[in-house]
């Protein structure tokens, strides 16, 4: 057996209000007044309090990015080309401020500034040759674990796949739970459930080991506190941010499972976003995760979440077949969930019957 030797985020600051320290964190990384810090910020924060607190100095630039759609390889290429045209030198830092979409975008831009070609050339495992620009992640939405992970998930012309490399993880993460104060309830739930589902899939997978279990169990306990108990909102924000971190660490050394595999199909064909896509699928996975689905239903009830219905009702045969193909191709996810003989359980007709329910 060959063991993975993977990098972790070397520096993290945690606490409500810690975002105010971003300026002092960046200061030693600044080389001259001509080498800017580039802030990639979710467009939702334009003219908001968070933007006023961004420590802009000298030639720094804030670039607001819409997250109506999840990040794309061509978007990364366009940003890299813009930065190379606008500045004679490489930036001193790339700072991503937003949810999983912006965090992944920031990681990818930091990599592509120092690596030739297009972002799509690096979708896969360990294809990145040169270290990235120093990059900082500031999550404003908790759940994906993108702040700790070794991947930057991008949709490319051919596939939705991450840039998985040792150069992908952030050099610095700022965990300020107050930045998540204004997240809408449904979005809070969907992205929070991404974390919950990471835990269930990791803890019930065949790849499980003590490393993943220790993080997964902690994350699951935190999710239960946040989504099933009556705790005050400030503690809930703190705990969900740490649940996201631990959930991400748990899957780093194992893998996700059935919900993610099926949800990738939904996202590929219909552009359904990661968090809600996982929820749409997970509700029908009692056969695979009975306890997890029971907890999920309780959480939905407690927070009065109503998921949309009939998403796959009017799909053409062609679309359904593409979804099935995309889901089936997620071999490591199925292997983790069901073992080497996963194809005994997961057939095209099985997947079709699940998609038809959604
Ligand atoms: P997101 O970043 O797409 O944001 C969802 C919505 O929430 C957007 O409308 C955004 O504007 C809004 N939002 C974010 N922060 C807010 C705030 N503080 N207040 C109000 N609104 C806010 O959502 P997400 O679920 O965090 O991320 C999904 C993305 O993460 C997908 O692209 C998925 O592929 C990726 N992902 C990556 C990893 C990884 O390890 N790299 C893991 C899981 C998911
Ligand atoms: Zn996920």
UniProtKB/TrEMBL annotation:
SUPFAM superfamilies: Dehydroquinate synthase-like. Residues 11-177 form the Alcohol dehydrogenase iron-type/glycerol dehydrogenase GldA domain. Pfam families: ADH_Fe_C, Fe-ADH. GO terms for molecular function: alcohol dehydrogenase (NAD+) activity; metal ion binding. CDD domains: Fe-ADH_KdnB-like. Keywords: Oxidoreductase. It comes from Maribacter vaceletii. Residues 190-322 form the Fe-containing alcohol dehydrogenase-like C-terminal domain. InterPro entries: ADH_Fe/GldA, ADH_Fe_C, Alcohol_dehydrogenase_Fe. This is 3-deoxy-alpha-D-manno-octulosonate 8-oxidase.
